[in-house]
Amino acid sequence: MAFKPAAIQGHDPRVPIPEKDLHPDHPILADGTEPNFETYLYYAKQQREKEAAESKSDDMERGFWANILWGKGGEKLAPTNFADEKKGDTSGSVSDGEYRAASSALRTASWGSVFYLITTDILGPYTNPWAFSQVGYGPGVACFIAFAIMAAYGGLLLWYMFMKLDSERHPLRSFGDLAYRIYGTWFRHVCNILQSLQLVINVGLIILSNGQGLSQMSKFKLCFSVCNIVWMLAGMLLGQIRTLRKFGWVANLSIWLNVITLIITMGAVANTPPNYAGANLPPGPVQTVAINNLPFEDQLNGIMQMVFSYGGAMIFIEFMAEMRRPMDFWKAMAVAQLFITIIYMFFGLFVYSYQGQFVLNIANQGISLYSLQTATNAISLTAGVIAAALYGNIGVKVIYNNVFVELFRAPPLTVKSGKYLFAVSIVVYWALAFIIASAIPQFAALSALVAAVCIFQFSYTFPPFMLLGFMMQNTALSGDKPYDANNPHNSRVDTWTDWSRWRRALSRHLLINLWNFILTLACLATAVLAAYSAIKTIVTQFNTSGSATSFGCQSPVQ
């Protein structure tokens, strides 16, 4: 995979599109109204037909491995009439033709490139050995495979709905956009709030893990809170890079830094004793079990670490929005899920087999040999701060655009005052992440909490819930008049306040709808239990003598 993917050559889907390239989130139709569900379906069908025709006439497939190694995107972006962002164009007058041209030009990624991007995880691999130590070999493997299957199912549902509702005229750009088209403004706000919460806690987790690594490198001579402050300040400076297009190659460098860390960690744990002091356990023989009979809360916290391995669904819509042929997304997701399952599970089982009950939640910090521990910490610290800068930039833009601009009429980021507010927001954002990390210096419990409250919803709860709404709305259209693009709001014969529309919506696909309804409830129940377990663990650890305290100098791995 040592290549520069097409998505990066044109536009990296992980990097937010500059505001000047964006049409309003919910464009207005010619009659002055917002598009309805039927409008999205109508233009999405045209878009898929266009893509199918282009696929037949321009078949440039070069085989599976060629796509993985080099991708087949790389198409040059079509020129647009937009002013350069540095010039601060604030006219906002973008014609529909220009907008559709820009929307089409941004669709350059191949499925090989998207496979590459889905696997760019910063937290997943390092927490899996600890997850196996909490539940044992049997339940660990079973849960890992079950999570993989259900994550693939959720990803396929998102792909199906994207194909039915996305078009160049009305493009989907984020998870919140898809949520809006199915359930409206309230659900878009729910998704944006959870996304913002997930990103800020992820930044806090990276500050916490980097602080632990720096404290180990200093042999605990540096106060742990000071270690966290160092990374907070580094993030505040690096986060001032407002446009991350040129930052894409650095973000991809972090992937390979993580791979190097994983390889060194496996070599080290196989040839050195565990880090007994970091595990807060007396030296003894390594013990591994098929089934670990720990309390339910501890096991659930361990299982939630596996959720990080499949936590990419939040930005699947962004990936599909950048693909030249989004119908191929299922290939990228299938290969990526298989890759993640095999590699991450192998790493988790390998480290657990050699370290057993002494495994640390951040695997490389469980290396006892100081030289190798320092080497892996130095590498992972670099990768971590790069990922945190990316998370922070996206997180600030999500909050700024959806809260400050939409609700408080703040200036857009393309004008001078908006740029100043962005710089201040970055400082506040990283300060908030530092407070979270220093107030709850418990990496395992905090990561389990964000997995239960946020990540679990995007990967497992929301996709079946959204498909339920999609299927009901689509079925209800069967009794309406034919759709007329010139009069888009004149086709419905009743409204959702009428029982007749609900009766039609529930008249078909009963088994599919029932399955997704039950699955949604099951996922919500699991998330609530996991969140309860994480909170209970946090409280218990704070009441345990010798544990790291809020804003204290003792490192959690000391």
Shape assignment: globular
Largest sheet: none
Provide the helix percentage.
55-70%
**Average pLDDT number:** 82
Question: What is the succession of H and E elements?
Answer: HHHHHHHHHHHHHHHHHHHH
Strand content: under 5%
Stretches with pLDDT under 50, minimum 5 residues: 1-25, 67-71, 73-99
Radius of gyration, in Å, reads 24 Å
From the N-terminal CA to the C-terminal CA, the straight-line distance is 38 Å
- Number of DSSP helical runs: 20
Number of strands: 0
Secondary-structure-based class equals: mainly alpha
Report on this model:
The protein is globular, with a radius of gyration of 24 Å. It has 558 residues and is an all-alpha fold. It contains 20 helices and no strands.
SSE topology sketch:
Layout: H1 6-10, H2 37-57, H3 64-70, H4 96-105, H5 111-118, H6 124-135, H7 137-165, H8 175-183, H9 185-217, H10 224-238, H11 248-271, H12 276-279, H13 296-307, H14 316-321, H15 329-355, H16 370-408, H17 416-439, H18 443-476, H19 499-505, H20 510-542
Helix pairs in contact: 3-5, 5-15, 6-7, 6-13, 6-15, 7-15, 7-18, 8-9, 9-10, 9-16, 9-17, 9-18, 10-16, 10-17, 11-15, 11-16, 13-18, 13-20, 16-17, 18-19, 18-20
